[in-house]
Fold:
Amino acid sequence: MASSCSYWLNQNFIFSFLFVIITITNSQVNGCFSSVFSFGDSLTDTGNLLEIALSTSTKLPPSAFPPNGQTFFHHPAGRRCDGRLAIDFLSEALGFPFLLPYFGVKKGPPESFRTGVNFAVAGATALDSAFLAERGIPSRTTNISLLDEVGFFKDFFPYLCSYYSDCKGLLRSSLIVMGEIGGNDYNHALREGIDIEEVRQFVPLVVQIIASAIKELIDLGAVTFLVPGNTPFGCSPSLLTYFQSSDEEEYDPVTGCLTWANQLAEYHNEMLQKRLEKIRNLHPNVNIVYGDYYNAAMRIYRSPKQFGFRETLKACCGMGGAYNYNSSMSCGYPPLTSSCNNPSSYVSWDGVHYTEAAYKFLSGSILQRFYTVSNGSIQLTMI
Structure:
């Protein structure tokens, strides 16, 4: 049947993104989306890296150990966070259960993936690992890239279709969350000592990969995408520690973030938005919403107390130095088996990833964007 999400969007996102109140029910939302499929890296991974380690008998990632998961799940839940990620809040807002990781459900019963699957893998890059290795950038966590994740989806698609009579119809009524992705490409390169100007040359290549991934899914029948941009790299305790400098001009006087690193993220986001506009022009029947993580996060860094945060540049789960971060330690591995007393007052969970409180704020901005785009007039053809 034909349906529109405009009524739902207008009713549920009338508030500013600072005070998004989610009051939707499953029956309301199922008139908009049948399922959610997501792609990306550790900011979106709900357990794939953990499932890969379990299936291959390799060393378990930090997400398998406390204090990860302590705030919401009260146990490790495959996430590099004290609780829920932005994708979790988005799933809740759409009335769906949390997305299960592909590597945990790919051989499961159809009811396990009825409302969607998460293909994001912690450590994933946009660019191919071989391409990065040729340039002296080794894979730190996994050699999986964004197009590999899309490949997993395409492998899974026939299995999904075997349980639904109108498989393309199912995909037309689904929301595709493409990213955030690209942060590992840039940050790994910077950590290897590659000059910032050379790293900036990766940006068009990364954006091209994201565009290619979107096109592949459009060809399969997808029509609604949420594409988040990169976060402010220069505010990450990890990069602030790696590139700690006595030169005050390298830092934003208001936030304390590294200006040049944030400019890299802004450059990526600008190029990504331009490319998304080209895709919209080529595919006028496809809805693509840009998720502005960057400016949402910068609101916190500029006015933390206004939004309930006390520490913006220190890791909650960390040890040592001005930013409570040490690159030789990972939250969950000894000795980092405990965290700060109040994670909700911190922006950074472990120096690389956000706390649940920060993800909640970021997801609010994404949900508000769904309301504001085209005045909430996203039209979907439903099965």
In short: Residues 255 and 302 are 6 Å apart (CA to CA). The mean pLDDT is 88. The two ends are 6 Å apart (CA to CA).
